[in-house]
Sequence to fold (313 residues):
Amino acid sequence: MTGPKVLVFGAAGQVGRELTSIAASRGYNLIGFTHDRADICDEAKVHLLVDQHQPIALINAAAYTAVDGAESEPDRAFHVNRDGPRILAMAAAAADIPVLHISTDYVFDGTKRAPYAEEDPACPLNVYGRSKAEGECAVHDISRKHVILRTSWVYSAFGHNFLLTMLKLGREKTELRIVDDQLGSPTAARDIADVLLKIVARSENPAFSKWGTYHYCGAEIVSWYGFARRIFAAAAAYGAPVPRLIPIASADYPTAAPRPAYSVLDTSKLRNAFGIEPRPLEDGIRDCLTNLLPGGVLTGERAAATGCQTGQS
Fold:
């Protein structure tokens, strides 16, 4: 593959896989590394890869994302989510290339009742959010040429995410109890990948100066219950089973890590800087279902292959 090289760490994750799938069509020679091939916390290896490949940009799609798990293993969460981005930012700064880093809506506490702007103070409720907030600070402080992209409620046709969990549980149960008092904006991993590559393209211009933190998420505000309803409404057209959905409060579904009650992100800064608009939720869900259910309902073998995990029930 010819074209400018872009290094992606976390290539096996949801966004990493989408980047791998679309990069060639955007004219980039994407070189992706999974954790097994390149641990972002291995400083020597990261610097060696940058020196070896001479990329025009680094994208960090690697993270410790087990929100509840982070409560019981905070050292691991901070190692991956703070120390790893610090190492990538150092390597990018040494090579004088941009680093694009994915962060999360969970850096906010959810007490605001209007979409969070980039300038709103981070005040995370849980270990995961704190580790991601410290990773942002590391990237910001070390690399002048950085873009931190906060996003939310990521889903795709593979990996571990709410959409896949719902489809799996919908095959197993006739009734699901889903939290209805946490509000956010589901975001398709492919859309995040698209945004990142658009920013890389703009950053190739030597006059580019729009470094900083941006928000990108899906266009609509829903609860987890509302998201589930939209998933099953779309999946029904493919013949997937539709369970009865019962809205419940967060207090009725206790988790190790507290979640923000409201984590909607204001995307106007990204729109003004790059002309990028959020996509409708139905479009992202439909794209996923087209990949998952091309010939009818999701089979047990296909469900296992996607790596579905049990979530709210």
